[in-house]
Each structure stands twice: as C-alpha cells, then as structure tokens.
Amino acid sequence: MSKYDDLFAETTPEHSVFTDKGALDPLAAPTEIVARDTQERALARILNGVHEGYLPTTVSVYGPPGTGKTLTTRRLCAEFAARQESVAVEYVNLKECRTLFSAANEICFELTGEKKGAYEGLDGVFTAIWTALESYPEWTILLLDEVDHVAHDSNYDPSEFFYRLFRGEGKLKRDIQLSAWLISNELLEVDLRLDSRVQSAMSGEEVFFPPYGREELEAILDARLEQAFRDDALSEAVVDYGVTQAARRWGDARKALRLFRYASETANERGYETVTTACLEENLESAEKDALIEKLLELPFNHYHVLLGITGWNEGGTNEIKQPVTTTEISGSVNRAEYDSAFHLGERAIRDIVTDLETMGLVETWLDSRGRDGRIKRIKTTFDPQWVRDSRASYAAQSDDIDELLTE
Ligand SMILES: Nc1ncnc2c1ncn2[C@@H]1O[C@H](COP(=O)(O)OP(=O)(O)O)[C@@H](O)[C@H]1O
Ligand SMILES: [Mg+2]
Description:
By secondary structure, this protein is α/β, with parallel strands linked by helices. It has helices spanning about 5-10, 35-45, 70-85, 100-110, 120-135, 160-165, 170-175, 190, 195-200, 215-230, 235-250, 255-270, 275-295, 300-310, 325-335, 345-360, 385-390, 390-400, 405, and strands spanning about 60, 85-95, 140-145, 175-185, 205-210, 365-370, 375-380. It folds into three domains: about 35-210, P-loop containing nucleotide triphosphate hydrolases (Rossmann fold, 3-Layer(aba) Sandwich); about 215-290, Helicase, Ruva Protein, domain 3; about 300-405, Arc Repressor Mutant, subunit A (Orthogonal Bundle).
C-alpha cells in the first residue's frame, strides 16, 4: 500500500454536501437558458433579418455583470448559424486588450489564426480582417464581448477604431456584410464617448439585460442546485434565503452560483451535514467585502490616502479603529511627519475629497453640535473600516509611486 492510499483516504470528504460540485461552476454552460425569454426573442428577431436580406451594422447588448449577456447571445447566434448556411458567427473577448491595435489583432486572430506584427499597424490588421472575411459566408456576425474594456490608447482613438470596423473603406469596397454585436456593461457610445460620425454608423439596435429578480434567479439556480447537492443537504428555506439575498444585493447569476458554492464549502469544512443559513450569511459578508475592496482599489491615490486617514486612528489603547473622526484627525493622519511632504494635503483639499467619498457612498458625515468649538463634522466609513486597512497591500501592489507612503 503506497503512502498515497493513506493520503487520499485521509483527504476524502466524508460527508460532503456535494454530489456534483461542477454544476455550480459559473463557467460551465447550462443545458437550458431560462428566464431570458424577452431577450432571446429580441435577438432571434434581429437574426431573422437575414431572411429579408438585412442584418444591422451593430447590435448593442448591454446590462450589468452576470445577467446572461454572454451566454444568451452566444447560444442564440450559434443556434441560428447552425440552421443557416449563409451565416457565420465569430466570438472575440476583448477584456484583456490594452490597446486598440491588440483588440484588432485579437479579431484578426479569430478569423485567420494569425496575429500581425506591430510594424503592420492598424491598417495592416484591418486589411487582413477584410481579406479573411471575403471568403466567409454571405453574413458574418462578429460578437465583441467586454468591448467596454477597450480604452483610449495613445496611438488610436476608439472612435476611429470603431468607424473603421463599421464603415471602413476596405469593408465597403469588398461589399462585406458584417454585423458587429457589442456586448458590454454600459452602452458603448456613452461609455467610450464615441463621436457622432461613429454613432450615426451604428444602427441603434439595443438589447438590454436587466439584473435578475428573485424568481428568475430561482429558476436559474434550481436545476443547478439539484444537480450539485446531495438530496437532503440543502433545505428549501436555505435556498430561499440565499436566492432572496442574491437578488436583493446583486441580481447577478454568477455571484449567486458562487455564493452557494462558497457556503457549501464552509459547511464541508466544518463537517456539517447540511448547508445552513449561517453558512450563507458568512459568505454574503465576504462577497460584500470583496466587492468593496475592488472599489477601493480603483480610487485615485488622494482619495485612498484620505480614506486611510479616516481609518488611521485606534480607540485609545485598543486595536479597535476609531470611528467617527473629525477633519482635524484625518489631517493629522494624512500629514504624518514620516510621510513624504509631497503627499501632504491641506484641510480644504481633505474636505473636498471627503465630499467626493460621500457622493460615492463610501463615507457618511454629520454635524455634531456638542463639540467645544461649536458644530463639528464627524466622518465615518459606511462599511467595516478594517476593510480599508485590509486593502492596503493590494493597493500598494498596483501603484508603484506610493509604495513608500504605504509601507511606512
Ligand atoms: N438565464 C440563464 N440561464 C441559465 N444560466 C444562466 C443564465 N444567466 C446566467 N447564467 C449563468 O451565469 C453565468 C454568467 O452569465 P453570463 O452570460 O456570462 O453573464 P454576463 O455576460 O451578463 O456577465 C453563465 O455562465 C451561467 O452559468
Ligand atoms: Mg459576459
């Protein structure tokens, strides 16, 4: 008997609540799409335009994360193309593309299997795209997912990029019927401030994916939960609680699946026979914390610096963070002698930033008249102040010029 027999025996989950945990993987495609009838119908109607010799130049598919945009759009297009020889569908995810050149190159790669070298420029890449499309079926649908991640880069303006894609000379000259479907969280023309020339090239077809409500999330989760769990591991009341919370907080199917997976892992770790409401609650809080820290990491440095100041004092002699604080206290923390003077902020600047942070919903403030000097402003975070401290290492890791300040 090898030592691995023991090792595997020891690490076998004994009373796992799962029978098929993979069913909770948000990346695993579900067999059926449920609760998106309106959107499926809208997409099908647009696709059917092919029978009348028309597909719009662009279709905007938009809505918050986890609302089924990618899943539904890809599935509908694939099902349609499988029934229509004259239609081809290509899918490209632009999330990781840092420049417009790399975005175009990603499209080129999907169509030709090859990328172009930087020396060929955007012109070279577009030429390759149009050449490839010449030998495609009559209609090509190009699904551009997470297209809102495409940013302005120093060489190219997004308007120019999209204008070429929708109306480019190479496309018109070769008489290519390309329909670009733009999948994003926000409407692209608003988000990327595309100019009016591009906007008039777009066809104005839009399909909106709203956040899921309680019943829709339940319909999505039901089949998956049944498959994932042992029969008696998850009571109806617990499912109900989790689905209600997920709908109220996020309306996001991906997050809801993750919530149940994490809660069940908690149950397994503790050796529980069933997933309890407490397991869900614990993971709801950590999901909230992750989302909040993500927001903090996106703050400009001065805003983050002031938040550190707001959470910079401890209650006398304890590890408890002092809340609320005053502007003077924030200033004392932000302008510590050991910080480089380049990072110092005046009280007025601090007050302006506190107002910004309040608008973002990260802090709340009120006037307290009990102060010795009359009315005094009190400031506290709207979430557990410890989270600011917990995010420091990650903030420092992504912003090199402030290492010095943050590792004091
Ligand atoms: N209507 C639905 N029916 C079944 N599963 C869904 C549905 N909507 C979302 N999901 C699940 O959630 C995951 C995330 O959906 P996705 O389409 O990627 O969201 P989005 O692109 O809007 O962020 C999917 O992979 C799928 O597992
Ligand atoms: Mg998506």
